[in-house]
Amino acid sequence: MTQPSSATREVLNQSPPFVDVDLFALDLPLAEAVAANGAAAAREELAEFGRHWGSASMAERGRLANENTPKLRTFDSRGNRRDEVEFHPAYHELMARSARAGLHNSTWTVDGHPAGAPAEVVRAAKFYMAAGVETGHLCPITMTRASVAALAVQPDLLAKAMPVIGTRAYDPAFAPWPAKRGMTLGMGMTEKQGGTDVRSNMTRAERDGDAYRITGHKWFMSAPMCDAFLVLAQAEQGLSCFFMPRFRPDGSVNAIEFQRLKDKLGNRSNASSEVEFFGAYGVRVGEEGKGIRTIIQMVQLTRQDCAIASVGLMRSGLAHALYHARHRSVFQRHLADQPLMRSVLSDMALHVEASIALVMRLCRAFDRAPADPAEAAYMRMLTPAIKYWTCKSAPGFLYEAMECLGGNGYVEEGILARHYRESPVNAIWEGSGNVMCLDVLRALSREAEAATAILQPLARGAAGLPGAASAAAFIEKAFSRPDAEGAARLAVEKLALLAAVAALNAVSPRHAELFAITRLVGNHGAMYGAVDLAHDDIGRLLDRALPL
Ligand SMILES: Cc1cc2nc3c(=O)[nH]c(=O)nc-3n(C[C@H](O)[C@H](O)[C@H](O)COP(=O)(O)OP(=O)(O)OC[C@H]3O[C@@H](n4cnc5c(N)ncnc54)[C@H](O)[C@@H]3O)c2cc1C
User: Fold this and answer.
1) CA 488 vs CA 227, 246, 453, 467: distances in Å
2) Which residues partner with 274 through β-bridges?
């Protein structure tokens, strides 16, 4: 038998894996955005998190959790219903690590009040780094954190739940939540006939003593092994919000039956179920008929996390692309030294610089909103605009990052194919693109004064930068048009871009100027790299993006 020649076994000119790196130390735009938004003191805590999540073992857990997807065990071997979902051990490890870092609760005090600055910024920095390693498991993590905002309208329930939500333990046991070391919560709103239009929910809730019996279905209910769900159902007074645990108070399994798991494009490590309720036990959260007002408190926070995760995915794509380009040679020259590749990578780095500055600015608003009306207005008006822009830009960005790795980017062994498949979901769930634009319009029409109060500081924050004044004037005019709805994407995108310029100006004025020139003055082309940046600016952007 002929032995293969050693030439085919020797691997040349491939980039080493981008693992065992410090995700915080290698990300200067992140560190600067964190510091500019009040969390400079968390540097060491974030560096420790960055080293841990940048390790080869965490990357391997991400791979395993996505290759070994969750399985629904509807029945046991004797035909009894089980309604359990089995996950690979790697998924449980990711959950445990995120819980240990407080990603599910660190923005709350032990009794469920906002923890105060800079808790949001610190958690967001961790969430962003974790998202670049494995995003699917963050679904129950984000829903658990967000659920506290809705539970706050039901103080008796919040008081019982906080001691369990408030621990940093992850307890995957299928057991009643009050006896567990830690718990996770999900949410059920979307039904077959409507996801955006939750008013069309057909699931019914009938009073049963102090509790309710809930009958109906949900077409999407993610993370079905959560210990409880906040569910919308029609009660006598209208659509209402309910806390529906997996076990009834007497310890029996609640009447929650999973029909099947969705076969999804991405988000594979996370399970998303179709589910039916057969008189399931639930307790009301908030007043009857006020279900949307109650659950929107939770949704506002999940929208914030969609934006953070999208930027985390893009950052990871950029880091992998740049790292590869510094190791891979084509025509005797590293890709990272080829002028056209440098244009592509630096334009992508500029996009990420602006995006991270923007989401950290948003998190600062979340931190300060309880005590500062201007920050509360920023949070309300800009959360949908920022979710819209960051989430919508992620798939195109990740596609470009993938291409920087050539064929290796397209295969599943690398992380970029997974990131690419993952990225569209953040725009679709928790309010899809058009819905976010309509939300901005609604908020502006309801609070005309707040709108001015938002636009003025944004214009001030971006004052003197190219295109900022005309962008502010355009936005004001566009939103006051009687037919504003049809052009809302244009106006909301401009609003997000102006907010990004202002946020970046507080972190890195030179880069804010470049971003303004390319995005406000120039109409940024559909492709990254179709800009004309100066040689020095390109070098600085690439050095900051990955100081290796
Ligand atoms: C992986 C995954 C997991 C999910 N997990 C959950 C979960 O845990 N819990 C849960 O409740 N839901 C969940 N969802 C459902 C998700 O929130 C909905 O799919 C989403 O809200 C959109 O609802 P829909 O699918 O009914 O689409 P529709 O509401 O029919 O919307 C379709 C399109 O129309 C647009 N649109 C809607 N209204 C307007 C309008 N007035 N003008 C212009 N355009 C409009 C939307 O932007 C969207 O692009 C999940 C979805 C996915 C993909």
Assistant:
1) 39, 41, 20, 19
2) 260
**Mean pLDDT along residues 136-144:** 98
Confidence band for 453, pLDDT divided at 50, 70 and 90: confident
CB 302 within 8 A of CB 430: yes
* pLDDT score of 111 more than 60: yes
The CA 433 to ligand 1 mean position distance, Å, reads 10
Q: How many CB atoms lie within 10 A of CB 202?
A: 13
Ramachandran class of 523: left when φ > 0, alpha when ψ lies in -120 to 50, beta otherwise: beta
Average model confidence (pLDDT) across the chain = 96
Closest ligand 1 atom to residue 194 Cα is 26
Residues 481, 487, 488, 493, CA torsion sign: negative
In three state form, how does the secondary structure of 159-176 look? Answer: HHHHHHHCCCCCCCCCCC
* Distance separating alpha carbons of residues 285 and 147, to the nearest angstrom: 11
Indicate the top mutation candidate among 392, 435, 437 to test ligand 1's pocket, ranked by most ligand atoms within 8 A of CB.
435
Among the atoms of ligand 1, which is closest to the Cα of residue 139?
8
Pairing of strands 228-235, 185-188: parallel
Which residue, judged by its Cα, is nearest atom 27 of ligand 1?
Answer: 195
Ligand 1 atom closest to Cα of residue 272: 3
What is the phi-psi region of residue 79: left when phi exceeds 0, alpha when psi lies from -120 to 50, beta otherwise?
A: left
Ligand 1, residues at Cβ distance < 6 Å: 186-190, 194-197, 220-222, 264, 267, 272, 425, 428-429, 432-435, 438
* CA of 143, closest atom in ligand 1: 8
In this prediction, residue 451 has a pLDDT band, given cuts at 50, 70 and 90, of: confident
**CA distances for 7 relative to 189, 301, 328, 331, 332, angstroms:** 58, 54, 18, 20, 19
Query: Ligand 1: which of 428, 430, 441, 483 to mutate, judged by most atoms within 8 Å of the beta carbon?
Result: 428
String of b and e for 456-489 (b: at least 16 CB within 10 Å)?
eebbebbeebbbbeebbebbeebbeeeebeeebe
pTM of the model: 0.98
Q: How far is the CA of 191 from the centre of ligand 1 (A)?
A: 10
pLDDT band at 354 (very low <50, low <70, confident <90, very high): very high
- From 135, 141, 147, 190, mutation site for ligand 1 pocket: most ligand atoms within 8 A of C-beta: 190
Is residue 202 scored above 80 in pLDDT? yes
The pLDDT assigned to 449 comes to: 77
The owner of tokens 């309208």 is 153
